[in-house]
């Protein structure tokens, strides 16, 4: 009798244990409210949507012949006869006009799911288009109309902003950021080397894009990235075992249990938290960024912190593998975006300083002298949120950079001193990551193209 009672108790305990394991293995979280990550996809109609028209142009026209004409003022470039420059620009002017027309349409929204073919085509087309516009501006300056050159570049800034706000995920933001970086440097070169009218500089400052728009576009792109991840994790429910084909060999032993060890809601919830916190951090200085959801995921991936028992007790290991494979580490991309945002803000300050110098025949002793007569406020350093630093004695603007320490600006040579020999070096004042420093020179001779005989 006692043995029978013991067996019954053991049987009940076994059933409870089995039930607990089943619940542990199969229970999923309730889905969170994802409405803050809803996206707007534009109509795929080139007659009304400028973005769709842009894709048609990218498929129909070839800009590749212009790709060898590198005239970025801060890297080495070959001399080019002026007549050849004019001929190249004349050749591409119709295509430039087509793209300008696409940007000018009332509706400009991303119209499709992200795919690599679209990304490659758009990247190539927009990079070369932006390059051609900068060439056009350079020719205007060389021909004696730097004010028209500045207007061309300011119009280009407005188009870049429209592209960045169109949506389309991180790839679209990266394309826009690259265009903004190149165009901003061309503006810096123009301001530093050509005589501009007071009216032109005043208009430039008045219409300069709002600071932080690039970072706002990056925050918007997180919604597209989340929707891509959500779709992938939902599709994974059809064949959870497929994720193990790309996993490490030590995890493939779990492949037969893939379905039982996959919690789609929990996986999507975690992805939502990662992208939501990324959105929220992009409104803050880089110094204040915190990514607890992403850090937990990275800790999960750290083999040193996981023994075999821990891995086999992970009831959503399929989902965690999927998260690690599908969600990119955003640290590097975010730092680059903040650096380009800095370049944009420095460009704005250089225009204000140039205007001040025209009025007073000298640079101000402090940046606050520019407020409010020239600019409403001093732009913040995107790295730490403090006003961008200025050293009047050295004539430099600088940022604390990625280490967030103010050492008065770095002491490396400027790209303005010898841009050809220093083109590929990271030890240039303006390019150095820890404390990028921008030299203020308004008396340099323009670096022009060779004139054809």
Please, could you describe this protein's structure?
The protein is mostly helical and 453 residues long. Mean pLDDT is 81; it is low at 75-79 and 445-453. β1 (389-391) and β2 form a beta hairpin. The protein starts with a helix and ends in a 14-residue tail after the last strand. The relative contact order is 0.10. The protein has two domains: 50-209 and 332-439, no CATH class; 222-329, no CATH class. Strands 1-2-3 form a three-stranded antiparallel β-sheet, with no helix packed on it. The chain has helices at residues 2-26, 50-60, 82-103, 116-142, 146-164, 170-193, 198-206, 213-235, 264-281, 292-301, 308-312, 317-326, 331-360; strands spanning 389-391, 396-398, 437-439.
Summarize the topology.
Elements: H1 2-26, H2 50-60, H3 82-103, H4 116-142, H5 146-164, H6 170-193, H7 198-206, H8 213-235, H9 264-281, H10 292-301, H11 308-312, H12 317-326, H13 331-360, E1 389-391, E2 396-398, E3 437-439
Antiparallel strand pairs: 1-2, 2-3
Helix pairs in contact: 2-3, 2-4, 3-4, 4-5, 4-6, 5-6, 6-8, 6-13, 7-13, 8-9, 9-12
Q: Which terms would index this structure?
A:
3 strands, 453 residues, 2 domains, 3-stranded antiparallel β-sheet, globular, 51% helix
Strand ordering within the main sheet: 1-2-3
Helix-strand sequence: HHHHHHHHHHHHHEEE
Low-confidence stretches: 75-79, 445-453
In round numbers, the mean pLDDT is 81
**Major sheet, described briefly?**
3 strands, antiparallel
In the residues, how many domains can be counted? 2
Number of strands: 3
Q: Specify the structural class.
A: mainly alpha
N→C terminal distance? 115 Å
Radius of gyration: 27 Å
Please work out how many helical segments DSSP would assign. 13
Query: Percent of residues in beta strands?
Result: under 5%
Q: Rough shape?
A: globular
Q: Approximately how much helix is present in the residues?
A: 40-55%
């Amino acid at each position: 009798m006692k043995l029978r009672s013991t067996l019954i108790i053991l049987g009940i305990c076994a059933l409870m244990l089995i039930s607990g394991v089943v619940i542990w293995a199969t229970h999923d979280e309730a889905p969170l409210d994802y409405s803050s990550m809803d996206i707007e996809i534009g109509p795929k109609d080139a007659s009304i949507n400028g973005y769709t028209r842009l894709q048609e142009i990218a498929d129909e026209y070839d800009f590749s012949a212009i790709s060898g004409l590198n005239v970025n003022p801060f890297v080495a470039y070959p001399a080019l006869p002026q007549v050849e420059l004019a001929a190249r620009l004349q050749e591409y002017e119709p295509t430039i006009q087509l793209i300008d027309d696409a940007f000018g349409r009332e509706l400009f929204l991303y119209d499709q799911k992200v795919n690599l073919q679209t990304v490659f085509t758009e990247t190539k087309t927009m990079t070369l288009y932006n390059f051609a516009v900068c060439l056009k501006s350079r020719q205007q300056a060389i021909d004696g109309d730097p004010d028209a050159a500045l207007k061309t570049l300011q119009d280009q800034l407005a188009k870049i902003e429209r592209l960045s706000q169109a949506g389309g995920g991180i790839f679209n933001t990266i394309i826009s950021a690259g265009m903004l970086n190149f165009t901003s440097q061309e503006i810096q070169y123009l301001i530093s080397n050509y005589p501009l009218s007071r009216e032109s500089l005043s208009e430039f400052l008045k219409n300069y894009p709002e600071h932080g728009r690039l970072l706002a576009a990056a925050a918007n792109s997180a919604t597209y990235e989340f929707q891509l991840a959500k779709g992938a994790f939902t599709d994974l429910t059809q064949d959870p075992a497929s994720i193990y084909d790309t996993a490490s060999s030590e995890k493939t032993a779990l492949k037969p249990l893939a379905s039982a060890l996959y919690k789609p809601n929990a996986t999507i919830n975690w992805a939502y938290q990662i992208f939501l916190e990324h959105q929220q951090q992009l409104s803050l200085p880089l110094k204040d960024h915190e990514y607890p959801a992403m850090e937990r995921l990275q800790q999960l991936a750290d083999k040193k912190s996981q023994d075999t028992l821990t891995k086999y007790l992970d009831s959503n290991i399929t989902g965690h593998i999927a998260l690690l494979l599908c969600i990119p580490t955003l640290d590097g991309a975010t730092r680059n975006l903040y650096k380009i945002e800095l370049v944009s803000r420095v460009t704005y300050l250089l225009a204000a300083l140039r205007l001040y110098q025209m009025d007073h025949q000298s640079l101000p002793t402090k940046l606050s002298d520019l407020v409010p007569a020239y600019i409403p406020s001093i732009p913040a350093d995107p790295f730490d949120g403090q006003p961008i630093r200025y050293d009047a004695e050295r004539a430099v603007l600088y940022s604390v950079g990625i280490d967030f320490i103010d050492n008065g600006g770095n002491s490396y040579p400027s790209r303005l001193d010898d841009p050809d020999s220093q083109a590929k070096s990271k030890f240039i004042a303006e390019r150095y990551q820890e404390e990028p420093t921008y030299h203020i020179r308004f008396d340099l001779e323009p670096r022009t193209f060779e004139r054809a005989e």
